[in-house]
Protein: TraM recognition domain-containing protein
Organism: Streptantibioticus ferralitis
Amino acid sequence: MPTPRTSAPSTTDGTDALLCLLFGAVGAAVGYGSLAWLSGSLTNYLLASGTWVRYQPAEAVLHPAELWPDLSPTALLIGARVLPAVLLSALLTAIAIFWLSRRSGVTTGLARKADLAPLLGKQITAKAKSLRPSLSGLKPKEIPPADRGILLGTLDPGQAEVRASWEDVLVAIMAPRSGKTSGLAIPAILSAPGPVLLTSNKAANDAFTATVDARSKVGNIWTLDPQQIAHHPRRMWWDILADARDLAGAKRLAGHFVAASVDDSNGGDFWSTAASNTLAALFLAASSSGRPITDVLAWLASPADRTPVDLLTDAGHLAVAAQLQGTVSGATETRDGIYETARQYASCLLDPEIAAWVTPTEEVPEFKPSDFATSKDTLYLLSKDGGGSASAIIAAAADAVMRAAVIVAERSGGRLDPPLLAILDEAANVCRISDLPDLYSHLGSRGVIPLTILQSYRQGQKVWGETGMDALWSAATIKIIGSGMDDADFADRVSRLVGDHDVQTSSISTSDGGKSTSISMRTERILPPDAIRALPKGKALLLATGIRVAMLSLKPWYKERSAKQIGPASAAATKAITERAIAKTLRSDDFGTAA
């Protein structure tokens, strides 16, 4: 008996492809002939003899002049040649678009338009009306797109705009220069209907310069720039001790200074905990007595000073006073170690230029988070990266704004309208809010919409720990993953979340009796880890609660019509930053002395 010879399995079959091509060509020819007969007969009926010839598609293509002898050459050319070609092209295009729109989600395994209906025009508009009483009296067509939700991107094909609702909380993990600012942060800021908060470690050619002019036309601009990222003159001050009038608020403020200097891995050791408790006690003493935060620096420099203990006692914080007294009167080596650690955490306040932004002054207006929550103002929080930076002040300000907004929402029906948008760009570098994962569980329900932007999943783990980052990731109802994902473990995790799909394969067996083709199904990842790593710039994966994973195209601001106005305004703002920097350089020499 002859032994069959089986070829290697192949995912494509050339013979099948050729047959499909042949059938397609025959179908197109028949369709063209039918259209030529139909349009030619109609032309003859309207312009010539008025007779209607019997169905002859071949004659209509090959010998149209014999079929309709009464038609002029021009009428024959248009009616029997041009018109059927145009109709066939339009028909084939419509079929292709319909097939792609219906089958793209099936063939790729990713979400199609029907799957994303809760985030598209009709349903997202209805949800905006239900969440925002100010829109309830408007018809759906009367609600501007910016009021419907935060634009995330478009779904190809069809260019359907996908938006997050006004109760979603978002996390974006995107590598540098992957479009996170131009395609996500800036469009969200420009279209925000209410107050906006932005944290950043850059100013020139970034979200600050691209949005400051447009947002100044909506409301007031507040810029907290203690380290002169934008070389912005001090035109505001913020009472950093305003929320430290009780022990819980003082502990939160101290926690921001600790988190800005240490990571989650070493933030719970003895020295960090003791220094945090000491800072909290000193903040509470200063706030309770109406002292500025600069007095805390003086107390840290002199551990034996009993002033904070007396102030705490006078304010009725007896337990905190006793604890602080115990630290001060303890072993000298231990006390000095605790105070030195606390001094390191608060070291940014040693710079008088930084401390001035959070110290009461009558020269400039005070920024009040509760008033900001009900405005359409914009707050830019700028700081450099690294230890010793003013990032603790930035995190404290962002935290104060979001908490004040929650309180205002609870007092005004439960939800802010319009909502507050908090863009926490470079959150792991300049806005380390320790309990941000916990805040995510209820911010959205109060109309406070955070968008935390990270460069990688591991960056978040470094700040909040593995458990904290997992909690933040799980609490986010909208997750955006952009290009440049080099973390193999995270890429594999996302790949598993995207899921598997069945792929049809065919194999050809050859024997003396001829060839036979068998078709089988196998399961493979919809997006393997290497495909996630290789996402092109401008593309992003959308993981929304209860919806199949989708591939989106970002809509960067510079590709929109408004770029004609935003581009020059951004360039002007960048130029102004450069001019302010040069002016400062001219006022001092390389040693910082007057020129």
